[in-house]
Amino acid sequence: MIRDAALVASKDLRLEWRGRVGLGQVLPFALLCVLLFAFALDPDRGVLQRATSGLFWMIVLFAAVLVVQRSFSVEGEDGVLDALRLSGLAPASVYLGKVAAIVVQLLALEALLLVAVAVLYDTTLRGWGLLLGTVLLATLGIAGAGATYGVVGLRLQGAETLLPLLLLPLLAPVLIGATRAGDVALGRSAGPGWPWAAMLGIFAVVYVSLGAILFRPLMEDL
Amino acid sequence: MNEAAYIAAAWIGTFGAVAAYAAWIIRRGRQASELVDEQDRRWM
Amino acid sequence: MAPAPVVHLRGAVALVDRFPALAGVDLDVGAGEVVLVRGANGAGKTTLLRTCAGLLPVTAGDATVLGVDLARTPAAVRRRVGLLGHATFLYADLTVSENVRFWARASGATQEDGRAALDRLGVPSRLHHLAVRSLSTGQRRRVSFATMVARRPELWLLDEPHAGLDAEGRDLVDGLVAEAAGSGATVLFASHELDRAERVAHRIVTLAGGVVQSDERDAGGRDAGLRSDW
Amino acid sequence: MTIDGSVSPSGAVAPARSPAPTSTSSRATRILGTVALVGTAALVVFGLWITPPDAQLGETIRILYMHVPTVSAAYVAFIITAVASVAYLWKRTEFWDLLAASSAEIGVLFFALTIFNGMLWGRITWGVFWRWEPRLTTTTVLFLTYLGYLAVRRVPTSTRTRGTVSAVIGILAVVNIPITHKAVDWWRGLHQEKTIFGTVDPEMQGTQLFTAYLGLTVFLVLFAWLLIHRFRLAWLTERAEEQGLDAAIAERRAEGSLS
Question: Where along chain D do its domains lie?
Answer without folding.
Answer: 27-238
